[in-house]
Amino acid sequence: MAINSTPVEAQIAKLNDEVVRLRKQRDNADKAKTEYMQNVAHQLAAPINAIKMNIDTLKNPRVPAGRKTVLLNSIYCQGTILAHLIKNFSFMSHLEAEHNLDSFREKPEEVDIYLLCVNFANDFQPSASFKDQKIVVLEDEFQAHRRPKIWVIKNLLSQVVYNLFENATKYADADSTITVGLKADTSSVTVKFQSIGAPISDYEAATIFDRGQRGASAKALHPAGTGFGLYIAGRIMEIHKGELSVATRGRMTEFSMKCPRKAID
Amino acid sequence: MPTILFADDELHFIEGLIETVKAEGYSVLTCRNASAAVDLTTSKNIDCLIIDIMMDPGESMGSQNAQTAGLAAIDRILKVRPHQSIICYSVVSDPAVIRGLKKRGVLYLRKAETSAESAWRMIKAKTTGLYRHRE
After folding, report:
1. Which of B12, B32, B117 sits opposite A56 (nearest CB)?
2. Which residue of B has its CA nearest to A47?
3. Whole-number Å distance between alpha carbons of B19 and A203
4. How close, in Å, is residue B32 to chain A by CA atoms?
5. Which positions in chain A touch B115 (Cβ < 8 Å)?
6. Which of A75, A100, A221, B89 is deepest in the core (most CB within 10 A)?
7. CA dist., res. A107 & res. A21, Å (int)
8. Together in a domain, A141 and A254
9. How many pairs of residues across A and B have Cβ atoms under 8 Å apart?
10. pTM of the full predicted structure?
11. ipTM topping 0.90
């Protein structure tokens, strides 16, 4: 700004600075939007392409029948995973608003949380096998509490369990075991997903359920990702008056999905 | 029996192609990060490396950006083994990246658009050297 500028000139200069600042802000937003769209496209395209490739391979007469059965199972599991991935994006708009359970078309119902975990463990096992990971649902812990039924919107809770399995199989070490256990007391039922793998710092743990957040180790291991999975899972638990939390110790991570008894019974 | 190394952090997404290559009687090795791809390709007799671009850099390449770790691995491998057969198999479709790969004799196949049959033919051609002759 010139030293002897008039008030009008000073105002113009100020406005020009503001235009520059806003343009920069717009460019950053555009860049973030492009990166996000690329991530979404990558995440959706990868399982679709895998399904296409597997179907293509089934047509090959040289592939043994036993391997074709494995591929068919893989197609089924990829399909399930893809459906939940798409649901994540559709849930985003719903969960942004201040919703409660009554806002949803579906109504709460009694859900066997053990069965839900076992079904997802089966869906994720084929992809986990490529990293020699084992998924173990600790049946004894669920049976010790007489396989508690919880009162939730099944579609929403399935998404939480899906996101936690997806997260665990993606970031757990190769040749490791992912365990799903249960703790219950008079006030709550808590399902625990424990794995060993990409470390989470204290700062990352504090912001891990924020929208779009991804830890440094997670980004290094898998560059593509939106950071929506845990945010959505956390919001769904909030809507059920429950809680999703994380505890870390070194490379060990434990996500706890807590459903209060009062919301269940 | 030719040996093919698949380097991809999401091997379950290319299961069909791996099965196709195995069914054709080729030996298959797999790894999930760029460091392992470099180690295996430079220490073993790999007839063709199939490598992704976006992947975990792994221990020895930890400083690399995961978005391009596969490209960095290709650079390192070609410094040690300039004639190594390599196919870059990725969804990254930046024309500048593809041109750069072609200049170094690396074949680029787009994950979304290549059928198992076509990918297998390219792998076979690269492994036998027929693809290079046609170039």
Report:
1. B117
2. B13
3. 42
4. 8
5. 52-53, 56
6. B89
7. 47
8. yes
9. 84
10. 0.80
11. no
- Chain A nearest-CA residue for B120: A57
Cα–Cα distance, A78 to A224 (Å, whole number): 17
Each residue of B9-53: pLDDT tens digit? 889 999 999 999 999 999 999 999 999 999 999 999 999 999 999
Highest averaged pLDDT of the listed ranges A99-103, A221-225, B47-51? B47-51
The answer on A154 and A231 residing in a single domain is yes
Backbone phi, psi, residue B65, to 5°: -75, 130
Question: By three-state DSSP, how is residue B25 classified?
Answer: coil
**Position A61 confidence tier, pLDDT thresholds 50, 70, 90:** very high
A221 and B56 in contact by Cβ < 8 A? yes
Question: What pLDDT sits at residue A1?
Answer: 52
Chain B CB contacts of A74 under 8 Å are 12, 15
- Among A75, A93, A111, the domain-final residue is A93
Q: CA–CA separation, B91 vs A224, rounded Å? A: 11
Last residue within a domain, chosen from A52, A72, A93: A93
Q: Which domain holds residue A245?
A: 102-264
Task: Count the domains in chain A.
Answer: 2
The answer to whether A57 contacts B20, with C-beta atoms less than 8 Å apart, is yes
Q: CA of B29, closest CA in chain A: separation in Å?
A: 12
Instruction: Give the list of residues 6+ apart from residue A65 with CB closer than 8 angstroms, or none.
Output: none
B54 Cα to chain A: minimum distance (Å) = 7
